[in-house]
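re: that complex we talked abt at group meeting.

here r the seqs, copy pasted straight from the sheet so there may be weird spacing, ignore it
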Amino acid sequence: MIPACDVQYSKGQGRFGLSKVGVNGVMKPVRIVRKEDGNDLNEVLLCSIDVCVDLPATQKGSHLSRNVEAIRAVIDECASNPVESIDAFAVRLSKLLLEKHEYAQNAFVSLDTTYFKDSTTPNGRGTLEGYNLTAEAEAVRGFGVTKSVVAEVIGMSACPCAQETAKEILGANGELPVITHNQRNVCTVRLTVPEQFEIPINTLIENIEGCFSSPTFELLKRDDEGAMVINAHRATKFVEDVVRDTLAMLVSEYTNLPDETEVWVRSESEESIHKHNAFAERSAYLGDLREE
Amino acid sequence: MIPACDVQYSKGQGRFGLSKVGVNGVMKPVRIVRKEDGNDLNEVLLCSIDVCVDLPATQKGSHLSRNVEAIRAVIDECASNPVESIDAFAVRLSKLLLEKHEYAQNAFVSLDTTYFKDSTTPNGRGTLEGYNLTAEAEAVRGFGVTKSVVAEVIGMSACPCAQETAKEILGANGELPVITHNQRNVCTVRLTVPEQFEIPINTLIENIEGCFSSPTFELLKRDDEGAMVINAHRATKFVEDVVRDTLAMLVSEYTNLPDETEVWVRSESEESIHKHNAFAERSAYLGDLREE
Amino acid sequence: MIPACDVQYSKGQGRFGLSKVGVNGVMKPVRIVRKEDGNDLNEVLLCSIDVCVDLPATQKGSHLSRNVEAIRAVIDECASNPVESIDAFAVRLSKLLLEKHEYAQNAFVSLDTTYFKDSTTPNGRGTLEGYNLTAEAEAVRGFGVTKSVVAEVIGMSACPCAQETAKEILGANGELPVITHNQRNVCTVRLTVPEQFEIPINTLIENIEGCFSSPTFELLKRDDEGAMVINAHRATKFVEDVVRDTLAMLVSEYTNLPDETEVWVRSESEESIHKHNAFAERSAYLGDLREE
Amino acid sequence: MIPACDVQYSKGQGRFGLSKVGVNGVMKPVRIVRKEDGNDLNEVLLCSIDVCVDLPATQKGSHLSRNVEAIRAVIDECASNPVESIDAFAVRLSKLLLEKHEYAQNAFVSLDTTYFKDSTTPNGRGTLEGYNLTAEAEAVRGFGVTKSVVAEVIGMSACPCAQETAKEILGANGELPVITHNQRNVCTVRLTVPEQFEIPINTLIENIEGCFSSPTFELLKRDDEGAMVINAHRATKFVEDVVRDTLAMLVSEYTNLPDETEVWVRSESEESIHKHNAFAERSAYLGDLREE
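got the structure back, here u go
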């Protein structure tokens, strides 16, 4: 029999409290059951999970194994009592962490996954698209849980300035869309809200996709590819425009979210004319955006 | 001749101001001239550079090409008027960005590089070690420049808890250091100060290396390897200990830095017994750490 | 209606044939139904898929959209006629690629995924461990299909040389296991065989795990951690030893595989005493290994 | 005093010979002195270095510390006797490895670096561009040294098929260049030759850049950006075309290289219309390409 480890319990030796102590990169399959049109959709998401809690100055070490035990306990519980989203999973896990680490005041959880969603090409064909998705939760003892949903969406941006320049050089009369450089653009939106607010992920992704010059697709037959290229050249956008249009979309579409919702939007353009990228960002409270 | 691009100047169309607009991943060789023992040491560092400024709501687009022009101008200036460190480079560049983007209130610069430093093994042999180094600068119009130095140092941590357990199981009498698991540990320190404060990088790295169970070395002859392993097993540390010892070191060694110095310390242990990592963090003002 | 694209069909313009033309990084959830103890285990694996075919000199361009169509067709077929493994998926897809690209002589498929497997700690507790897994298939028109299974397994290696040195320096009498440095070790095994041979993945992973100083676990209670550390220090291994023991394991355990099985084994040790890694490799036919 | 380590020398215990044993990821600044227009250009390149040798079945372990000693010795020698290129460095290091590992028959060296080169925009402005560069050397005892130069060049490719489709849909009359999707394209060329052949790196990069729809630049004023976009749309290329044009360039420009030169060319297009990439490859002897 192994006696308890004195090393972790010798109180009072540590001079400084720590903001975060935990584990990162724990790989787990997470099962969610999503409601859609009245049906239950079973999905298994491969997640990389980070969890941590704070550590008071009086305590020598954090009980790291409790973190993995908590992850396992929530996964087990989901077998009988499923979650509807990875942010719901993160919230549930953050609460259990506070239970298990009785000395901690805060618990943080982050899950990264690849999420798949049905989409439709310009000419109406169905495709399946993948997105990096992150869910975070922070539980503060006595103050509830805040959660974040982070969607990283790939689209296309076509440059309005080079189009204008090309038009001038070529002497184009403006009847047809004019050439410009275009490229992959990654638009990332993070929304941070109290746990009771729902942010349906499929709608969020679709809303973001509407802010590019064009969304992108896994499979494009010739007519779809042509339509997509034409659409993009009729909706040219700088990285600044992608961010601003996304902010405007959030203000108009998310009227149910409270003013204190924290918003972070970033658009990064993998410039086809340079070896480096261009980017734009905005962070703000939703309430402030509503007034701008 | 190409007329000015109207697209970028059409004021008042953009509804939202943006926190950051710029370019990232610009690769450049940066020359620094470091003073050491009264000598000038010429070094060329390969840097990946990110720069951005804010954008007011009244302006349609940021002038992205000015960012690369500013980087080039500072590199050119360094030929005749060299900088002593990459944080000095970042500060100089942040000021020029505010000059070039007359509409901006803030400018941000970040440089990532690999830095090399002479070191010495336990038994006195010379080695050359590499470190990831980041310098950041934020210039606020009318309020001066704040800079950050971020040193990412690789060392070894050996686990005190598993050592205690192994001692109990084996019935070791404590005369010899007892086995435990050990692994790479990455300790990252970020210090944010007003631009006039100097943070000599070699000393900072050496100070951090003193907070591991042992520093690591590119080349170890047998006696050095033996000495290093013994040293590490006599200075076992959790990730929590690495962070706390680093915080204590900062308090005792950096008495010249002001209370408002922002400190962030993270230790991440690439656990040899798990497939995932363990980590600990603390962020605080130096003034608060001085009082804990 | 969009007429056929002449660009891709104008034959005879291309001077050089190409070895490979295709798409890479297509993300897809792939469902497999594994037989285990007479039961069907349904698993959904997140896969990154690369596919390509060769292109004769006479053909201007490859039909890239057929690659994604082929991936989708095999995923659809798996709904009614499931595969038992990702290598079976790769084989099926490689055959369909040859069908769809009638001008090609070779088709290549590669799937990368994270695979989970139940494991057991030294003291008998159950855990779930994750592994990077790759399956490849190459179909040659008229010559059948060859497939590869690549398992990347993380374990621990403890250094025998530093242990010997520490023993000498400390004057240890050899009764107790002596300290040494240990670290994460990644052992990768690739086996390439004709399509009809089965290589059960769970057994392969377990066999590789037996060749480390110790396997690693997501969750270790104190007694398990102590036992694991002691086990590892009683089975110290260089990277060379991990590779050789793996080769010996393959010879003794895979007597059913043919002599022409291509074997590649690599062990990489993330040295806790250095900032760089150490590695060893062997590639050979299984028949040659049987005679060494 | 530390006696010699018996562990590494106990012969005959190892059953299998190993193809490669060594270290990887050793970071070093490497100084080269390039001849250009009769001048000596001093450059310091940040290199990540891998080195290894084979290990016969009769030898228990490889002397890993000799690898780092060899790297240091060649760097020291370069202070007085500089190399002109990183491939010359790799060749010199591979020879020293065979000297130091008297039991080995083969030595392999690989250096990865970021290389900078002056370039010129379409309208004649100077820029500085960065490229990933790899040099490899393989020394076989008694058979000399073979070296490889690998240049990874980023450019732009614009799609001819989508341009054709857009032209049809839009009813464009062909007077002006028609819109299409374009994106970053990474073209990688590896040339493997006996050590005595020189492959000037600046010329190689420029030759590859001529095979894209357009090269890319760190800084483009408006007229340059417009010219570049127009150029690219007048030289649309599939990934297949980039590879084939590169192969044709190698045949016409490298008449001094022997028939047994090994050629590998890959073009990867970071498709702006998809979330995945498209790629094409060819590997061949230069002699075979000369006959196709």
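couple things i noticed - The first helix of chain B runs from residue 6 to 9. Chain B touches chain D at residues 1-2, 4-5, 26-29, 43-46, 65, 68-69, 72, 114, 116, 128, 130, 218-223, 226 (CB under 8 Å).
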